[in-house]
Design brief:
Elements lengths: L7 E9 L4 E10 L5 E6 L3 H21 L1
Antiparallel strand pairs: 1-2, 2-3
């Protein structure tokens, strides 16, 4: 019996328009040939919250330097 280990990576893209941040998440999984397949996924509310906080903190720190 052959056991197959699957690795998966969660990738979240963030864009900013004039009003708000937009999140798009994909899951990259290894396929049977060893390549990567991308699957759309929902960006979790906690993930959105943490990413917003990090972006706001980075923006505030950048404003202090300028």
């Amino acid at each position: 019996m052959h056991t197959h280990s699957t690795e998966a990576y969660r990738i979240t893209y963030i864009t900013l328009d004039e009003v708000q941040l937009h999140f798009e998440t994909e899951i990259a999984v290894t396929d049977e040939e060893g390549g990567l397949a991308l699957l759309s996924a929902t960006t979790l509310p906690e993930e959105r919250r943490v990413l917003r906080e990090l972006i706001c903190e980075a923006h505030e720190q950048q404003a202090l330097i300028a």
